[in-house]
Amino acid sequence: MRPDIGLPDRAATSRETGGELPSGRPLRERRGPGAVTGALAVSRAVTPPAPAAGVARATPDAAPAPRLAAESLDAYFGALHAVKDATLALPDRFVTAIIGPSGCGKSTLLRCLNRMHETVPGARVAGRVLFDGQDIYGRDVNVTAVRQHIGMVFQRPTPFPTMSIHDNVAAGLSTVSPRPSRTEIDAIVEHALHRAALWDEVKDRLRDAATGLSGGQQQRLCIARALAVEPQVLLLDEPTASLDPISAQKVEELVYELRRDMTVVIVTHNMQQAARVSDRTAFMLHGNLVEIAPTKELFTTPRDERTEAYITGRFG
Amino acid sequence: MTMAPARPASIPAAAPAHPSAPRPPRWTDAHVTVAMRSKRHRRRLVNGLMVGLVTLAALLAVLPLIVILGHLVALGGRSVQWHFFTSLPRPVGEVGGGMANAIVGTLILVGLASAIGLPVGIGAGLYLAEHAGTWLATVTRFLSDVLNGLPSIVMGIFAWQFLVRPLGHFSTWAGSVALAAMMIPQVARTTEEIVRTVPVSLREAALALGYARWRTSLSIVLRTASAGIVTGALVAIARIAGETAPLLFTAFGNQFWSTSLNQPIAALPLQIFTYAVSPYDDWHAQAWAGALVLIGLILLISLIARLATRHRFAGPGGD
Fold this sequence. Notes:
The structure holds 2 protein chains of 2 kinds. Chain A is 30% helix and 21% strand. By secondary structure, chain A is α/β, with parallel strands linked by helices. In chain A, helix 5 (182-195) packs across helix 7 (215-228) and helix 7 (215-228) runs parallel beside helix 8 (245-258). The longest helix of chain A has 14 residues, at 182-195. Chain B has helices spanning 34-76, 82-86, 100-130, 135-148, 152-167, 172-196, 200-208, 213-241, 245-248, 268-276, 281-310. Chain A binds chain B through residues 40, 42, 114, 116, 119, 121, 144-145, 147-148, 151-152, 154, 156, 158, 160-164, 166-167, 170-172, 174-175, 182, 185, 207-209, 222, 225-226, 229, and chain B through 133, 199, 201-212, 215, 219-220, 223-224, 226, 312-314, 316-319.
């Protein structure tokens, strides 16, 4: 059974073909029998089962079935054609990096993957993005459900300034239905902070202002906030660009850890970072998705000469 | 060896240069020439002058308030006694008497006006900020500015025409609606300005968490802007609390005790006006006292609202 993002039942049959969720997460709750609008319920599993020890990860070359896939995706800002006919598959529990020079459309592509692009006035998207086989741009899809399943962290840390550390992490849970109880929330918050490697630093001041944290801590807080709603995919838009090297390293280690139980897409300026954290790397230039390949392959034997020019530092 | 004329006695003469000796500091007071000294004096002088001028401006800005307060205390302070808050106005010549009805009346009028005006004004401001480009927002913004500049007496006549005349009697409702109509454009515009300062990144963060747009606006944007909105609301409340003109034909005033929303009701500004234009000295004193109480009331409201919003974030177990 796949997470339900509100497609009508005719889509459900095609969904069944994929089989069980790899992480063995509990089934999504439905609002009612045959509910057409679908359940928005995000998994309330406090401790999602860790992948069994010794489970062999697929190698980057033999990627598993895609969790998320873009098909002939075009994105526009008014007249500007920011992403041109992009097609890419994001394999489950892989870290995919998107690299490219400034303004190449990599952030825009990322924002199309959880329908954040359309929140900008004048922005438009054409094409399909399949999340477990369902088009998230489909007619009856619930946008907020899409964003709960496909979380996002931005370049600059964005803690909610009026909320405490605890409440920031719990913020996303207020949209979950049925709403978790207070003790459940506390457990989820603790678990999310553990996963974001922030728990030890904040456990004694959960009720303090989130804005009192350092920049690196704030960014990990934002990651914890995104993780608290248990997304299946996490989109990271240059998550370390505004951080110092030590904080950046912590976030990188975190990304490396996260791929054990989720699909991660990371946009980065930093090629070394892409090489360090990702299984697969995509290179974009002027809105075109030039090449996508296993990271090692892309950096050692790029197929496209533009990719080679970029990674060897001849432009960009 | 000659001493530089400007060198203070406390600074020792530079030691003769020797390769092994530690080098003297490159730049000490001893090196300051007369020309540099005069330049420094000039800079300090100009700086002092400018600081003095802006301090003076700051003092001048609060001077009227201090003078008014002093004047009120001097003239009305003696009349502000316990019975002023507890008893009703008495006829001329009778000693004592107070403005209990007017104080309560003002609280009711301002409370009711705020209950109508603040939600509408804040909601309108939120709309103006979140849907800035739409034609409705453009028109609303323009009309709000026009309404803001409308003389308050016109608002009173308007309320009289639409609420008093059809119903056939003056009432608290009519007065509150007139006051609310004055609040709304002001609150809307200040809310809009404050909401616009909330960074887009916060909205995006909320949307990316799966918040619907309305929820983002209410629980993230409004909450982040709340301190500024409270300030704007307080300014508006303080302004309408002192309004007289819109109440002349609506709340009308009342010499007796009434808290009915369908009857004419007393209000401090009205009472002050009535007493101030009367020919009696003891009524004049009452008017001064009323003005003092009105200012105190506004101060109190501001203070309470400030305290209530100060630690809004770290409440125990809040979520």
